Structure formats: structure tokens, C-alpha cells
Protein 1
Amino acid sequence: MDNEIQSIEEGAFDNLTSLERLRLNRNRLRNIPDHLFLSNQKLHRLDLSENYLTTLTDDQLHGPKSMVNLQLDKNQLTCLDSHTISTWTDLEILTLNGNNLNTLGELEPMNNLRVLRLVDNPWHCDCRLKWLNKQELRSKHMLNNVKCHRPAMLQGRYVESIDIQQMKCSGIEKRAASSCREASVCPSVCACTDTTVDCHDRGLKHIPTNLPPTTTELRLEGNRLTFIPNNAFQNLRNLVRLDLSKNMIQDVAENAFAGLLSLNTLMLFANNLTDISPNVFASLKSLQLLLLNTNKLQCLRKDVFKGLQKLNLLSLYDNQIKSIQNGTFDDLRSLQTLHLARNPLICDCNLEWLGEMLAERAVETSGARCQSPRRISKRRLSSIPANKFRCKGSEQFVTKHAGECFIDYNCPAPCFCYHTTVDCSGRSLTEVPLNIPRFATELLLNRNEISHIQLNTKFDQLTNLERIDLSDNKIVQIDEMAFDGMSSLKELNLTNNKLRHFSSKMLGSSSKLLETL
């Protein structure tokens, strides 16, 4: 246990004929060989919990004669054969919590079974699970907190509370694979028709690994996916349509879609994405439709759409995008429809290029409007003349690095900003304003009423700041490390305050470059 074992070779335990207990939990196992335990007939406790196993077949479990305790919690199991398990008449404990199981073959009567844990699986309460409602399981309270995920009419209901007559099967379920070997052709949690694999609304937390290589359409919408790992679909060379909408996806690995050279349609709408790595879509040379609407995207990295020359519809509707760097759409030569509405767009000089593009190409059809600056707020982006995309004072610096997913703070309300100077002097301030823009190279706070420079002032975020003027205040205390981390600070003016004590600890690492104090 507690290692990083990813594989076990065939016959690894053949010589361990007296083995009684084996703990392989908390490793990285994705598969185990057939007949791995064939020589371990005395094995009575096996712990494979907290690995990455997706299926366990009868052949993989075959061997032990007197198994008492089998723990399989917190894997990614979508299929578990039950025949071998049913032969273990001494079995007392079987734990399956936290997997992706939607059904389980009937276990023959086990008089010694006292613990059966099935919580946190997306159970499909159809005719295949009727056996769970047997009186002996209920009487031993083995179904406590076990809930149905499907069908919709039973979703959220406790299994033990369901009338057995409600547990019915459709034609698809009746034709479902009878073993995990058969399920390898089609994941047991999904339904396969011709070249379409339908895994929607199954409560999945992980993408099934045994997807047929002939798949052209994969439906994974309406699940509980939070992350799309590298090479998640690498064997699906023929995939044309992929639906990942209505999940809880927060992150997509850079090579998640590697190998999908035929993919035409990718739906990622209604997820929790805040940022997308620049190379995520790089291999999708055939992509024509990309739906990213209704996420929480705060930015678009400049190269995020690089190489998508065939894309003709891009939806970014209903996100949190404030600005888009010039060049972001350069490769989208076939683009015919673009949705940008319901984004808090800052229509300043750095977005002028987009206004010009939309004036030339009438592709924005969702009615996108500017949120700021106030002078053009609520106006349609495509109707604003180029000369209206202006920057006043320091406005150009706020959105200058949008392509790097950085939008700076606006000038603080009591202050005045010009170029990279933030002037808060003579404003009767009693503390340093919050959210000083990071583009600032000079911060004027002189002639105020500030008495205490606190550690939580967050000066360390102002890595471009070269000069701070705090003269003519009422400063009596500066916390240790208050100015730490200011890697560009050269001048700090504390003239005409009420300091009685000064220590280099107040400056921290900023003291190394300081020239004037």
C-alpha cells in the first residue's frame, strides 16, 4: 500500500502460496492481469481500494477459495463481474463505495455477508438491481444511503425505499453485456448503437476507458466530470462529434483531445471553465463547431484557437471575458458565426481591432455589447466606430495583457492615474487603497492621514512599482515585511511622519534594490 505501483506483471504472486492478506490500496493500478491470484488459494483479505481500476473480471479475481474481505472503494470501476465473488461463501465484507458502477450482477446468497457498501455510485435502478431489494439485505441494513441516479423518476431515491415493481428495464438494458468481457466492446455504463456511444446523465466522474475505437459520436453530457485528462480519447480516431456539456469541468489538460483528427463538433458549454491552456485545441484540424458558452471564462489566451482554420461557429456567449487580445482570432479564416454576448467587455483602445474586424465581417450574431467604459456602455460592439475605442489616462494598461489572462485593476476611486503613475496624494486617506493596479511604477500617497502600514496592504503584488511617496502622513507604525516582495522598488519616501522606530525587517527583500530612503 501507499506506493506508486502502476502495473503488476503476470505471475507476480504465483510463489506466494501461503499468502493470506494482500494490501495494494493507494497505488496507481489501472489494470491487473488475469489469474493474478490463481495460486493464492489461502488469500482471505484483499484491499485494492484507491487505485484507478475501471473493470474487474471473473478471471482477474479467480483463485482464492476462502475470501473474507474484499475492498474496492474509490476506484473508477464501471464494471464488476459477480460470478467469482458469488463463489466465496465465507465473504463477510465487500466495499464498493465511490466508483462509477451503475449496475451489479446478482450475488448468490451469502449467509456470512455482514458488510456491503455501495454508496456514491451512479446506480441505475432497473430490473438488473432488483436483487438488491431482497429481504435479507434490507434486514441487515446493507442498503443504507444507497441512492438511485437513474432512471429520472427514481433519481435521488433510496434503493431500499423503492417498490420492486418500479425497477424496470428498457430494451437497451435488457441487451446489456452480461460480463465485463462483453462490456469491453461497449462500456457497461453506456448504451452503444452502431457507432454512437451514449453515456449521458450517468453520474460519471471519470471518462470510460474502454470506448470502442469505431466510435464516431460520444455523448458524455450531464455527468459529474470535473477534469479532462491528457489523451482521454486517443484511440477514437474516427470521432466526429463529442458532447461534454452540462458537466462540472474546471480544467482540460493540454493534450486532452490529442489524436482527434476527425472531430468536427466539440460541445463544452455549461461547465465551470475559467481558463483554457493555449494548445488544448491545437490538434483539432477538422473542427467546425466549438461551443464554450455558459462557462466562467475570464480570459482567452492569445493562441487558444491557433490552427482552427476550418472553424465556422464559435460560441463564447455568457462568460466573464473582459477583453480579447489582437490576434486571438487570426487563424479563424472560415469563421461565419461568433457569439460574444453576455460578457463584461471593456471596449477600450485594446479592443479596437475587434470592432474593426466585426465591421468588416458580420459574424457576431448574438448582439454583444460593451459594459465599459461608461461613455459607450450598453452599445452594440459591432456598431461602434473605430475612433470610439479610446483609452484615457492609464486605461490602456488595464487590458494590455488580456492574451496572457491578466486584466489589471482600474484606477482606485479616490485616486487619479496617468500613464503608470497612481496619484492618491492629498485625498485625506487613512489607509492605503485596496487594489492598486499592478502596472503602477509610481504610487503617490503623500499628504494623507495614514497612520499604519499593515502587512496585508499587499505591496508585494506591485512588482513594477519603483517609487512610493508616503511623506507628510501620520505614520507611527510599519509592520514587519510590509514592503517585502517589491522587486523593483528603488525609492521610498517616509519624510515628515511620526515614526519612532525603523527596522530593515519592515522592508524585507525589497531592501536589496532600494536606492533612496
Protein 2
Amino acid sequence: MLPQGRRSPERRSVLPQGRRSPERRSAPVSIPDGRHGPHAFVADLDAPLLSPDDHAHLSRSLRLRPGDPMTICDARGSWRRARFDLVPEPDGPVVFVPARQPPVTVAMAPVKGERTRWAVQKLTELGVDRIVMLETERGVVRWSGSRVERSLARLSAVARSAAAQSRRVRLPLIEGPMTLSELAAAAGAGLAVAERGGDPISSITHTVAIGPEGGWGDTEIDPGMPRVDLGPGVLRAETAALSAAVLMGFKRDELARGHSE
């Protein structure tokens, strides 16, 4: 904490196309915690403009009035305090929050009903960086054609709302559908498949694949692919996804604490 009366040092950087970087506070690094009102995403922190949906939600559901405190975020790690209006008035320096490393990915096959949306909502709240929808041999729900784009758009909207509610400064990437072999090619050594009897999740695991309700096909899992156990009992796909997110997040935080000591 800085002595009373002293200002935090400013850090400026050059942005492309002649844009000037807003004032950034480099220390201490903090994230929105709700003390300064609700949270919303905008395209430009220097010239913020709320979307009609966000403005309606904040004014009608949360009953904000012009001038009430809130926080705004560019979804790329930067945020600042502001005063509510359709065009929020910035009310403080821009704070940049570095991304946590390594990025955490949860991959799962879509499930029936609203359970996939529920899973995406909770995974976002838990801080997952990337959510992948898997195409599996025994999956009950299958996406194809125009349904892929519509489904991803709906899940992205769910993630955006959950990110605002949980005061995240970045939006998770929603991708898919892709096969387990395609996921393995992209994830590399940090990928593991969730299976009972596997090893505990370790700090090198940053991607966990959750199988469909019908189980993995006989040839889907490469024999050399690591397996991780998510705990006792048989879990629903969406519960397994949350368990994987919590365990990987804990290991990531544990690793970060070790590096800071």
C-alpha cells in the first residue's frame, strides 16, 4: 500500500494506429470485487458505451440510476471504475490484470436440456479460460451445420453474462465441436482424460476432457493419453466438468503461490 497522499506510478504504452494508451496503474494489481457496483463489458475503456441489453439489465433489473458506481472492462484484462449511464463516465485509472498461467481448458460433450448452458455458466464463474465442446462417438447431443454457429453464440452469451456477474476481466473462449484427437493435437502434453481409477490431477494438467454420458468409444482414447480421477462416485458430465475446473484451478493457484515465495 502506498503512503497517504502519494500517487501510484503511471505506466504508458504505445497502441497501434496512433491511439493513446489510457492511464494504467501497475501496482497493486487488483480485480473488481463488487465494492464498486456491478460489472459490464465495453469495447473501449476511454469511450465506453453499454450495449442496449446491458443498459436495460443494469437499469431495470439492478435498478442503477445515472451516476451510480460500477466497473467496466474491455474483456482483455483491463478495467476501471465508472459512473453508470448509457455512456458510462470513467471514474478512475485503468487497472490491468495479468492473465493467470497456464490457461485452464475444460472439454466436454454437449448434454441434454439446459445442462450444457449451466455447465458453461459455472465454468465461467470458476475462471476457466477455454471451454471446448467435444464431438464423441457415443454423444447423445450432436451439433452440425447451422446449429453449430447458433449453439456457440448462445453459449458465448451465457459466458459473457456469467463473467460480468463474477467480475471477470476476460471472457472464456468457447470452441467446438472437435474430436478428442483434435483436442489432443492442440493441447499437447497438458491434456488428460477424466476416467475413474486415473491419477490425481497434477500441476502439469491444464486441459481435461470429459466423456459423454454413454462413455468413450473403444478407439477414442489413445493408449498413451494420461487419465485423471475426479473423485469418488459416478459424476454427471456437467458435474465432472466443474470438478475438473476446481482441481485444475487449485493446482494453478498452488503453483503461482510457490513461484511468489
Protein 3
Amino acid sequence: MIIIILNYVVPVEEIDAHRGPHLAWLHEAAASGRLLFAGRQVPLTGGMIAVRGTREEAEAWARTDPFAIHNLAEYRFIEVAPSVLGPGLEALAG
């Protein structure tokens, strides 16, 4: 699993102007099974996305994010190998 941390580099008003296409991009990934979850940080300084696949796949996919295309956020990628999971999350193992 790859955790992608987004940090906004522009005002939130500019982020919000591109949020519709960004959400469509996330929903497409959810429908394909790639996306595990996504959400905004609190306070609103960026977001977090968890995806299946390799780091290389996640980096290539993230380059297609409307936020990346318009240089609205910086991306950090963290590979995680879950070892302890709560009930109902067994599918995240391995």
C-alpha cells in the first residue's frame, strides 16, 4: 500500500476551483479498485490518499491528478506494509 501525502502550495480558493476534476479522478480510482481511501487534512493544508500497487505505479498515477497537472500540490509517497489490522480490514494485508 502506498500513502500519498499532498501539501497544497496555493491558496485553498485555487484548490477548490479544481476540486471537481480531482474528485472525479479519485472516484475513477475507487471504482477501479486502486483507491483505498482519500480525504482532506485537518486543518486544510493538503490531503491524504491510500492506494494499492507499487510506489512507481502510485507516482505515475499521481502525475495524472488535476492538482498535479496544475501544480497546486506537492506529493510525498510512503510505502506501508500493514501488519496489524482492525476487524474488516483484512484485505489490506499483503
Protein 4
Amino acid sequence: MMCRKNPWAYLTMLLAVAGCAAPPKDAAWPPRRPLGGDIAAYVPPQKPPADPTPPEFQEPTGVVDLRTAWSAALMRNPQLRAFSWEVRAAEARVLQASLPPNPDLEVEIEELRTSRGAGETSRKVTLGPEGFEVEQETEEGPGSGFGSAEYVIGLSQVIELGGKRPKRTAVAALERDLAGWDYETRRVSVLTEVAKAFVDVLAAQERVALTGKLVELSETLLTTVDERLRAGKETPLEQTKARVALATRRIEAEQADRRLNAARKRLAALWDGQTAEFEKVEAVFDRVRPIPAVEELADLIDQNPEIARWAAEMAHRQAQVELAKARRIGDLTVAGGIQHFAEEDDTAIVLGFSLPLPLFDRNQGGIAEAAFAAAKAAEERRAARVQVQAALTETYQELASALSQVTGLRESVLPAASEAFEAAAEGYRAGKFTYLDVLDAQRTYFEGQGQYIDALEAYHKAVADIEQLIGQSLASVGRRQETTTQETDHEQPK
């Protein structure tokens, strides 16, 4: 189609329409889980930095508590920072998905000559007074260059039909939300890893203290054996046994020191520390609390980011179905431009369009694939819930077992073992018991102490695992339960 109007006004309007685009928007990060929700975590800038190297970081020093360790890890953990950058990348993909296709500039030139064409010669014969006269005339051929060329300059623009652009943007936005949930999942995982590494250091410190105490008692016992040997009340064999026992205890103390150093480095690595510069960790290691009912904890698993993310995941799968349906409709391509006619030295507007006919390919396979993926998501959502519930049940049993062991050792085993050891040591000094009796009582007491440390370590690690599964601290569940009970008692009629 051609019409002779002002061509430059048309091109200006087409460029203005093609250049419109919505400004970028920041992503809505998912709400934090209650666990560590009040502790600042690293959030990258919205614009890519010129130097992605993290700034200098002052590692924790001195006495470190769990909250300090959490704060350092949430700001410096390399994996968590990587997840945060992925959220920013997903935001950029939303922007890219929201942009319309660029127009195409089309230029076509015809009759472009590189040299002047050959001229035409004509002869005219006339009869004059002097006889026949021949007149010859030569016309020059067409010139070279653009003077005789015809050209078309135009723009073509793809217009997406079927709502592809907003639906594509919706898919990208939901993928951004899922990236945010991946970040939140990793954030909770970092908190759990730090808590368990913190418990490792705390337990290692207790074992170092225990082995140190055992070395001191072995030294005291060796002194007692030496005194009894000089008094003729003990044999050299018992002295040798006492020295061997002391050497063994010192080796155990050195091993405990090495394990403590390794645990300290593992904890520092979670905040990207090259060395453990802190002095020690501090917490009430032997504090245990009653465990809420497993049914109450099961009601909180919806806070787990692995489950909470599925609302966005289901919406994402459905958005993919809608996008696949929109792709059934082909896109319209409109074109317009100006054409120059050399002979008339005139211009005209050229308009056209193209539209694919959906005779064979209507994206049937893409639609079916997206629908199957949505159906699969429903099963995956149920599987995720079942997996978290099973993990909660298993971890709850481990926690209950550790708590039972801690209680039994604290209330029954350790007091009796301590009393037996003190009685054996006192009796040995008085000559009532043999050295083997003292060693046996000492071994029983310190084995009980070691089991007590192991049970407390298992208890605190199980607490950390349950807190990861429910997305909040176990202590807050207990406080909420106590508050509810008090309110219920208050409302009872007198």
C-alpha cells in the first residue's frame, strides 16, 4: 500500500512508539523466617559494582556468642552472598522480559550505477542545395551514483499478540521470587550451620576442660602413689601404672586441643574467616528446656522456606502454562517507510504487514509440556511437605533421646559416679582401696562426663535442626506455649 503524505512525520511517530519501555522495579524479597529475622544479612546493591571484591572485614575477636557468629556469617558467608546476587540477576531478567522487540531498519536501493551508461546516437539525412546532408546527434547515458537510484527506507516492528509480553514478564517475576526463596532457604541453612558449628566449638571447649581436669587428677593420683611407695605401702608396679595413665591423659588432652582448633576454624570459615581470631565461644552449654509437643511443631512447618516457596512455585508453573498458550498466536509484523522515485523525483509512503498462519504449529507440545510440569509441581509440593514432616519426626526423636540422656546422666549417673570416685580416692589414700579401684572409679566418672558432653552436643544440634525445619527458635515456641497456658488459666471461671 502506498500513499503520498509527509513520510518523516510517520517515521518519527513509529520510532517514538517503538522506544517506549517501563522503568525497572526492585524485587520484593520474600519475608524472612522468624529464625534470625532480626539480624542484618547481606543485600547487594541494585547496580552492579565496578569491583565485586568484598570490602575488608573485621573478624570477631575475644569472646563470641551465637548472635555475634550469626551476624558475621549472614554478612560474609560466600554462598549466601552468591545467592543474593542471583536475586539481583533475576531482577534484571524481569526487566529484560518486560522489554518489547526492537524495530528493524530496512534500506533497499535499486538502479545504483557505478559508471555512466552508454549514450545513444541518432542520424538524420536531409536533401539540401549541396546534396544529401547527414546530421548526427548523441545523447548522454544515465549518470553514475545516487542521482538515478531508487531507494526504500523503512522500519518494521514486531507487535506481540496474545499478551506474550506481560505473561513473559509474569513468568520472569515469579522466577525472581523463587530466587528470593532460594536465598531465604540458604539464609536459614547458614544460621543452622553456624549454630551447629558453634555447638561443636562449645563441646570441644568442654572436652578440653574435662581432659585438663583429668590430667590434674592423674597428676595428683601419681603424687599419692609416690608417697605410698616411699612409705612402703605401694609397689613400683602401681607407680608405673600411674605414670602410664598420666601419659595417656596428656595425649588425650593434646588430641582435644587439636579437635578444638579444627572446630574453631570450621566455625570461622562460615563467615569467610581465614583464621579463627576469636578467643572462645560462650553460651550456657548445660541448659536444656522441655520440648514442645511434636504436633505443635508440626503446625509450624509451613514457615519452612522449602514449603513456603511452593506458593510461588505453583504460580510460576501456571504462569508458564499461560505463556505457552499465548504463544499459539503468531506475532504481527508491521512495516512502513518511504520510497524515492528517481524519474519523477518524488517520494511515497510504503506500508505493509505480515502475520503467520497457525495451520500446523500452534505450540501444542509447549502447552502440553507446561501443563504436565504444573501437574508435576503439585506432586512435588506434597513430596516436600512429606519430607519435612518425616525429617521433623526423626529429629524430634533424636532430640527427645538426647534430652532423656542428659537428664539421666545429670540426675543419676554423674552424682553417683562422682561420689564413688571421691570415696575411692579418699579410701585409697587411707589404704582401704587399691589403685585399680581408684582407676576404675575415675574411668567411670570421666566416661560419664564425656557422655554428658556428647548428649548435650546432640541435644543442641537437634535443636538447631528442628529450628531449621520450623523456621523459628525452639525457645520461642515454648514461650508462646506458656503464654497461651497462662491466658487460658486466667480465663477460667472462678
